[in-house]
Every structure is written in structure tokens, then in C-alpha cells.
Specification:
Strand content: 35-45%
CATH class: Alpha Beta
Structural class: alpha+beta
Strand order of the largest sheet: 2-3-1-4
Largest sheet: 4 strands, antiparallel
Number of strands: 4
CATH architecture: 2-Layer Sandwich
CATH topology: Alpha-Beta Plaits
Distance between the termini: 15 Å
Radius of gyration: 10 Å
Length: about 70
């Protein structure tokens, strides 16, 4: 299992979190845990997903990815 932590700018409410979660699950995330206080999303995948694909999915729903680890 591949695990990544995304630092995301702009998540201010539960609707924001829901949008980010849906975007990540839309690219085959098997697990998503979003910490609004830290502006982070912990995401797990069965297969490697390119960071550019993750960034693009988040940008499409109106947020910016600051970093991916």
C-alpha cells in the first residue's frame, strides 16, 4: 500500500473537506483522512499515483497542494 501526506491550502470548512475527499477517492484512494487543523490529507493507494495527478485533482476542486510527502 502506498501512503502519501498532502499539505493543502484553502480548506476552511466541512464542505471543503468533502470536496477534497471526493477528489481523492475519485482517483482510487483506498483511504482518506483529512485533518483540517493541519491542512493535511493522509491518503492511501493500492498502486503508485503520480504527485502531478494528485495535485491536479485537488486543483480541479478549487484548492492548492503545497507539498506531497
Amino acid at each position: 500500500m502506498i501512503e502519501k501526506t498532502l499539505k493543502i491550502d484553502g480548506m476552511h470548512c466541512k464542505k471543503c473537506i468533502a470536496k477534497v475527499e471526493a477528489a481523492l477517492k475519485g482517483i482510487d484512494a483506498t483511504y482518506v483522512d483529512i485533518n483540517q487543523d493541519k491542512n493535511e490529507a493522509l491518503v492511501c493507494f493500492e498502486n503508485e499515483i503520480a504527485d502531478a495527478i494528485l495535485s491536479e485533482a485537488i486543483q480541479k476542486v478549487g484548492f492548492a497542494v503545497i507539498s506531497i510527502h
